[in-house]
Every structure is written in structure tokens, then in C-alpha cells.
Design brief:
There is one protein chain. This protein is α+β, with helices and mostly antiparallel strands. It has one domain: 2-Layer Sandwich (Alpha-Beta Plaits). It is 31% helix and 38% strand. It has a four-stranded antiparallel β-sheet with strand order 2-3-1-4. The chain is elongated and about 45 Å long. The two termini are 16 Å apart.
Length: 110
């Protein structure tokens, strides 16, 4: 059975989120990226509480594409330590999951 995931990352600009989204979809590493924002983030960074306006990317793919997705995000991202979090998609409509799977590239076996 195929395992689907949602990867999340945040970016400092809408343009960066769009650049990452376009690349991932064009390369068929993901089926869909939704960009939400701006959002307000509060976090601790290097001992100091920070506030920032960010854009949230909700990225849909299969688990076997994760390493390539993570690598692409890290390469394209401006943050020293970008958020890259995976949540399993436990259930979904058959039609949506079939579409998601159909939009991804082929992974070589092994």
C-alpha cells in the first residue's frame, strides 16, 4: 500500500514559497503545494524570542519522495534551519489519493 504524506515548511516571502512550490511540482516530486499566508510566527532562535511574518507551504506527496523533497527545500531555502515537518496522510478520498499518486514521477525500484 502506498503511503502519502504532507510536508510543511515556512518561508520568509511569498516569492520564495512560490519558487519552491513551482520547482517541486515541475519536477514531479509532489502533486500539490498550497501556500497560506501571511502568517505570524513566534519562536525562539539562538536564545532570543523572535516574531516574523511567514508563508506556510502545505506539500502533498508520497513517503518515498520525502528525501528528494527535503533536499530540494534545503537547497532552495533562505533559512539556516528551515522547518521541514512530515505528517502522514492516514486517510483520504480514493479519487484524491489516486490523483495525487498519478501526478508524481516514477520512482525506480530498489
Amino acid at each position: 500500500m502506498k503511503s502519502f504524506i504532507q510536508v510543511t515548511t515556512t518561508t520568509e516571502s511569498r516569492e520564495q514559497a512560490k519558487k519552491i512550490a513551482d520547482f517541486l511540482v515541475e519536477q514531479k516530486l509532489v502533486a500539490c503545494v498550497q501556500i497560506v499566508g501571511p502568517i505570524e510566527s513566534t519562536y525562539r532562535w539562538k536564545g532570543k524570542v523572535e516574531n516574523a511574518q511567514e508563508w506556510l507551504c502545505l506539500i502533498k506527496t508520497r513517503d518515498d519522495f520525502y528525501k528528494e523533497v527535503e533536499s530540494a527545500i534545503k537547497e532552495m531555502h533562505s533559512y539556516e534551519t528551515p522547518e521541514i515537518i512530515v505528517v502522514p496522510i492516514l486517510k483520504g478520498s480514493k479519487e484524491y489519493l489516486n490523483w495525487l499518486d498519478d501526478e508524481l514521477g516514477n520512482k525506480p525500484e530498489g
